[in-house]
Specification:
Blueprint lengths: L6 E3 L6 H8 L5 E3 L3 H20 L20 H4 L2 H8 L4 E4 L2 H15 L8 H13 L2 E2 L2 E3 L8 H11 L4 E4 L2 E4 H8 L10 H6 L3 H31 L9 H5 L4 H14 L14 H4 L1 H23 L7 E2 L6 E2 L7 H29 L26 H16 L22 H33 L5 H11 L12 H12 L8
Parallel strand pairs: 1-2
Antiparallel strand pairs: 3-5, 4-6, 6-7, 8-9
Helix pairs in contact: 1-5, 1-10, 4-7, 5-6, 5-10, 10-12, 10-14, 10-15, 10-17, 12-14, 14-15, 15-16, 15-17, 16-17, 17-19
Length: 506
């Protein structure tokens, strides 16, 4: 994949591709060196200091947190409050985010704080960015956030890391944050009033995961189209189903784009044999199924990027006037809805490819291909079973993906003494979306290798775009002419999919 342009954290909005490029270590980054922007950050921090001088009552600065906002904190204890916040939230469980996920969280939280209305010091932004640059990553448990009041528990691991506490990942090993600070020659931060709240009280985890999910879904859309084209050739399908005039009569833009990609891949030739006037739905209606995802990517991007480039903690500080604004921007409803929607969109792709694979292996429907796509010679055919078990596996993965489409956002729970009495569940939705994507990518890997076997067995000439793809695939995946365990090849195929290895449709 090409190296991404350097990412600048500051006053300009970032596309979600920047977050993913940083997560995958394909881009460098820096903080904005604009003096005006840096002055705005400093003014916000100065407002917080001024509030303390005036002994005003400000949530999370001179009060307790959440339902404890009615508890006043004397100035003698204000400096201790930030550490208390990240300490008592150190109760996350479940698996830990991987390195890419942790990087994405750092980038997403940094971009939010760069909006200049969170009341944090420039030094905090510099240290957060330095962690990203040095690849010093918090070890963040996945579970424990209800998505409002933001991702408090998982983000407490970011705050603690900056203060030299808890476990981190550095140079590929789990280390103590204090040990790594010493190795880097850093003095751990002591968070100022409002800074722990600014770090933790926001939607950075769900938004980071949503950026990753979007990129995986966008690539999966292209891959599913290419797999469909391979299967059309293997099954001798009718490319007239994708005629431009047909789609002009029902012009959903994404659906039309999928049909155009299929026309490009198949380069319809009327002389090529066709088995049916109308193919089964998993072939004929592929643009209609995939087109829903294609047409949804635009608004999904809008929801995710607006959240990415927003200030989503509470309270916010007006650095120009000095006002403190108490609100609820930590609520992750837009991300929750986007990820719940993406789960359904993605699972439908799994179902589509699973149905195509079922046609390929079934000699009643595959128009003359060997049963189970076995490539064994006649004297070995009776003991060979080709892709039989792969199809069973794909069916299992598709079923689990479909089961995972239950929306998380409707399961709001009243928490924290009924202060957080309506919550988004956005982080659970984002984690669910990634799991459904993982399963759908497994179905895609199975369908891709089966389609590759199908065109090998069919032996028909391939249109140029498909021939190029098949030549590339053959470097890693040989035809199955005698049963062999395919798990290693499926895993390699998954690695290729997740690395967006093949260039598809520009």
């Amino acid at each position: 994949m090409p190296h991404h342009e350097p990412v600048v954290f500051g006053q300009a909005p970032l596309p979600l591709e920047s977050v993913v490029a940083l997560a995958e270590r394909r881009a460098d980054s820096r903080l904005d060196d604009d003096p005006g922007w840096q002055a705005r950050i400093r003014r916000g921090a100065a407002v917080v200091d001024g509030l303390l001088d005036r002994e005003g009552q400000v949530y999370g600065i001179t009060t307790g947190y959440g339902d404890s906002c009615v508890t006043a904190v004397p100035l003698s204890q204000v400096e201790a409050l930030p550490r208390q916040l990240y300490t008592f939230h150190g109760c996350g469980l479940g698996r830990f985010l991987d390195a890419q996920g942790a990087r994405a969280v750092l980038a997403t939280r940094l971009q939010s704080l760069c909006q200049g209305v969170s009341g944090v010091r420039l030094e905090l932004l510099e240290r957060l960015h330095a962690c990203l640059r040095e690849d010093l990553l918090p070890r963040i448990p996945e579970e424990g956030s209800v998505g409002a009041s933001g991702d408090l528990t998982p983000l407490s691991y970011v705050a603690a890391m900056l203060c030299g506490e808890r476990e981190v990942i550095w140079q590929g090993r789990v280390r103590q944050a204090s040990e790594v600070h010493t190795a880097l020659g850093w003095e751990p931060l002591t968070l100022r009033p409002k800074e722990a709240l600014a770090l933790m009280n926001g939607t950075a985890v769900m938004t980071a995961l949503a950026c990753q999910a979007f990129m995986r879904a966008a690539y999966l859309l292209k891959l599913a189209t290419r797999i469909t084209a391979l299967n059309m050739v293997a099954l001798r399908g009718n490319p007239a189903h994708f005629d431009a005039r047909l789609f002009a009569a029902k012009p959903h833009p994404g659906q039309c784009r999928i049909a155009a990609w299929l026309r490009q891949d198949l380069q319809a030739d009327d002389a090529r044999p066709r088995q049916r006037l109308q193919d089964r739905y998993s072939l004929r209606c592929a643009p209609h199924v995939l087109g829903v995802l294609a047409d949804s990517l635009g608004w999904l991007r809008g929801f995710i990027e607006t959240e990415l480039n927003s200030a989503n903690d509470n309270p916010l500080i007006d650095p120009e006037i000095g006002d403190v604004m108490h609100g609820g921007h930590f609520y992750g409803g837009h991300i929750a809805f986007a990820m719940d929607s993406l789960k359904t969109l993605t699972a439908n792709v799994a179902d589509l490819l699973d149905r195509q694979l079922a046609l390929l292996v079934d000699s009643r429907y595959n128009h003359g291909l060997p049963s189970n796509l076995s490539g064994a010679p006649a004297d070995r055919a009776m003991i060979n079973h080709g892709f039989k078990a792969v199809q069973i596996g794909a069916s299992a993965w598709a079923a689990e993906a479909l089961k995972g489409t239950m929306p998380a956002s409707v399961f709001s729970r009243s928490t924290e003494c009924h202060n957080q009495d309506k919550v988004s569940m956005g982080t659970i939705a984002a984690r669910d979306a990634l799991r459904v994507l993982e399963l759908t990518e497994q179905v895609a890997a199975a369908a891709l290798l089966a389609g590759l076997q199908g065109v090998y067995l069919r032996g028909d000439p391939l249109p140029a775009p498909l021939a190029e793809m098949v030549d590339t695939l053959r470097e890693d995946f040989a035809p199955v002419t005698e049963d062999r365990a395919l798990d290693g090849e499926l895993r390699l195929c998954l690695e290729r999919i997740r690395a967006r290895y093949w260039t598809l449709y520009g």
